[in-house]
């Protein structure tokens, strides 16, 4: 029970990788605040995983919403030991037709949301004086460019960079900041991604998803639960000497 007595806030925790990590934390003795813009789904996830977990509404693009989420977690659990930034969105299209609207939306969630969740929670952790763990979900898309995915790739590269800066800034307070970089993961989001590739690459539905799965050295797409072990490690005392790193959990797709 590596997380016994610890409380984690997980943004984007209602579904996908966030929900899998939430369940894994509860199995390790942790208590989870499932924070999501879809409050009813977050409540259902919190009910399902148990462990005195609770739901909180958070719109990570809105500072007041972030502050309210942190305040709720402090009130209900007495403090925050772990933050996992999973909330993210995706969009794509031809480079020359990249829209300001799409760019702003992606960066508002993936970059601004990650940064200001970190700042709000780190202030809470510093005030409490017990240290903490912050884990940011990046992506293999943050390691390299892709021709149709400029804004998303750039946003995830920013997450990796922010993880480095925050890690160096906060370790003096015994707050470890690290990241996880998934590859292609079989979640409902990938069905949306597959549809976009079908449109822009003129492929049949399902073909891109099949091809990217076959290209993974491990032999298949990732599953949300494949990321739980790394997330538990980074939240536990076992990672106390790990600072400002982003770990690839991608079946061997990227080596760095």
Model description:
It contains eight helices and seven strands, in the order E-H-E-H-E-H-E-H-E-H-E-H-H-H-E. A seven-stranded parallel sheet has the order 3-2-1-4-5-6-7, sandwiched between helices. Helix 1 crosses helix 8 and helix 3 packs parallel to helix 4.
Strand and helix map with partners:
Blueprint lengths: L6 E5 L4 H12 L3 E6 L2 H11 L4 E4 L5 H15 L4 E4 L14 H29 L3 E6 L12 H21 L4 E8 L5 H13 L6 H9 L12 H8 L10 E4 L7
Key terms:
256 residues; alpha/beta; seven-stranded parallel sheet; 7 strands; 14% strand; globular
Query: Which class best fits the helix and strand makeup?
Result: alpha/beta
Helix content: 40-55%
**Major sheet characteristics:** 7 strands, parallel
- SS element count, helices: 8
Instruction: Tell me the total number of β-strands.
Output: 7
Shape: globular
Roughly what is the average pLDDT, rounded to an integer? 97
The percentage of residues in β strands lies in: 5-15%
Unreliable spans are none
Task: Please give the radius of gyration in angstroms.
Answer: 17 Å
Straight-line distance between termini: 31 Å
Strand arrangement within the widest β-sheet reads 3-2-1-4-5-6-7
H-E order: EHEHEHEHEHEHHHE
